[in-house]
């Protein structure tokens, strides 16, 4: 297994999230769970990942409360918990950035669509408490005292 | 260096983003760049990371077009490019998830505030093209033909 640095002592919520999710594989497992994968074999086919890597990551995601195991007949399936479902904006943000910057013009890519009208979602907007749009330059980080 | 699987052949923009950003260290470097770090030593102090790890990650982020090196006197500084600035929603999404799920009640944490009124930002909202709020269940992924 790849050794991973732990960030969970940090007071920064970004670092804590990074620590809780695990690694990139884990994030792609979460992506596939959003896309409908539930069974071990489905995740394996979707990701093309070795069984031992997948097995370790699934267990870690269950331990982190992001996935839960649900018995279905003689086997079990993996389902996102509310904590896991709450990662949707992270997946959408990564997807929209990738759409904008990681493909050549005309290169084919998967699309995330609204089921109702088959249109892509709106780009994410960062808004202040009063509703106005803000950029990174309009914000600052306050460290704990 | 930690061996990393490459996802850049995938047609999924989430996987491409994951590949372009690099690893978690790289994402935390981007976070620190948003928070004002520009010099090698600033990143090093902020992250408490070994010089060789930081050096490799900074070079990869420059190669990926996320950071650029700007000469300042006899040295240089690292500044986010527009492509790097566009990662702000990813950082905000991770931060908001961490705030909600990765801290005990009352535990101290850093905060991302609007400079104008020192209030936290609004939670990210996922909206369809027509403006209505959607959850993951309202969406579907269409793979390329």
Name a few traits of the molecule.
homodimer, 145 residues, alpha+beta, two-stranded antiparallel sheet, 6 helices, 4 strands
Report what the structure shows.
The structure is a homodimer of 145-residue chains. Chain A is α+β, with helices and mostly antiparallel strands and 145 residues long. Helices cover 41% and strands 14% of the residues of chain A. Chain A contains 6 helices and 4 strands. The first copy, chain A, has a two-stranded antiparallel sheet with strand order 1-2. In chain A, β1 and β2 form a beta hairpin. Chain A starts with 12 loop residues before the first helix and ends with a strand. The mean pLDDT of chain A is 91.
Tally of individual helices of chain A:
6
* Element string of chain A (H = helix, E = strand): HHHHEEHHEE
**Beta strands of chain A, count:** 4
Reported for the largest beta sheet of chain A, the result is: 2 strands, antiparallel
């Amino acid at each position: 297994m790849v050794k991973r640095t732990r960030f969970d002592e940090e007071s920064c919520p970004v670092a804590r999230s990074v620590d809780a999710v695990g690694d990139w594989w884990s994030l792609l497992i979460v992506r596939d769970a959003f896309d409908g994968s539930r069974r071990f074999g489905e995740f394996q086919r979707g990701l093309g990942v070795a069984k031992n890597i997948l097995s370790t990551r699934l267990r870690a995601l269950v331990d982190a409360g992001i996935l839960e195991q649900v018995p279905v007949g003689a086997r079990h399936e993996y389902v996102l918990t509310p904590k896991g479902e709450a990662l949707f904006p992270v997946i959408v943000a990564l997807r929209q950035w990738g759409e904008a910057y990681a493909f050549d013009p005309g290169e084919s890519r998967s699309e995330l669509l609204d089921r109702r009208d088959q249109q892509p979602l709106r780009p994410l907007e960062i808004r202040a408490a009063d509703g106005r749009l803000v950029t990174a330059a309009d914000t600052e980080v306050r460290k704990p005292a």
